[in-house]
Amino acid sequence: MKATITTLPGDGIGPEVTAAAVDVLRAVARHHGHQFRFEEHAIGGDAIDHHGTPLPETTLAACRAADAVLLGAVGGPKWSDPKAKTRPEQGLLALRAGLGVYANLRPVSVHPRLADLSPLKNEKLAGVDVLFVRELTGGTYFGAKTRTSEQATDETKYTVDEIERVVRRAFELSRSRRRHVTSVDKANVMETSRLWRETVTRIAAEYPDVTFEHQLVDSMAMLLLTRPSAYDVVVTENLFGDILTDEAAALAGSLGLLPSATLGGRVPLFEPIHGSAPDIAGRAAANPLGAIGSAAMLLRAAARLPQDADNVEQAVRDVLAAGHRTKDLAGPGEAALTTRQMTDQVLAALADVADRRYSYHGV
Length: 363
Hints:
Elements: E1 2-10, H1 14-32, E2 35-40, H2 44-51, H3 57-65, E3 68-73, H4 88-99, E4 103-109, H5 122-125, E5 129-135, E6 145-147, E7 152-154, H6 160-174, E8 180-185, H7 191-204, E9 211-216, H8 217-226, E10 233-236, H9 238-252, E11 261-263, E12 269-270, H10 289-301, H11 306-321, H12 339-360
Parallel strand pairs: 1-2, 1-3, 3-12, 5-10, 8-9, 8-10
Antiparallel strand pairs: 4-5, 4-11, 6-7, 11-12
């Protein structure tokens, strides 16, 4: 397998966790004879400092020419002035638009050894396995904005086509899972949500083998904490998806654990869901597992290497089962591994997993 992967380390802990993910991808390539070529480019605050823009043309061109894009994180207090005309987050939004990706997939599950880190009682966490499908190119983030000294507006806009394509993606994904889709909106108040609900209802008729339901976003925020195991695939618009997936991260115990894939355009984009965490940047304290999980999603969705992706995910599970913890996961009195040490544990476990499966199949 040959693939060109553009890496965008970005800001804060982005470079640290991206380096960990690249190390894992290089190990996969060595184990199985793949040829992965990595090309690094700037985005976000780093790009503002060095190029005067959060998404240089050279970065976007490299991403469009790649087979996949692996992103770290963007933003930080250095560029946080709300009155600034140029902000790191603009680079990420422009990248998503430039690649044409529209479906952000965020899986959330709970490792049994980490259940105590969740604010929920352990019995509520049994069987939690939710895939959020967040629409990524429409809604409030991309609507027209106005600002005066007395008022501000943010337009929320959706087209039928934008809704249809992400909803179909969610229903298709559900067919390889438990065949249950929950659509989240605010149809009792918002006109865009009424269009969303009508469109979902119509699309659902094309999938008679899939059970579906509607939930209002405020109710869903409560239900994720009271009965999270009841949900399989959750599809929603951009802003609601952003908020709900961060809430759901509490189920897993840490934002640092969760990966994501953004699909649907010319080149897929993979990134951990956490931010740049500037307070721990450069301290070797970042949890690399979200970025490593994103690398596994890259192997499955972009490189079409599902067994290699399974191996990486199993290695992460084995490391957590063995009790290895970074600072965000360590309890009182528990030793915390550095970013590098946790990465090394995953690499060692990955070699063991690959050897076991290689031998098992008698090759």
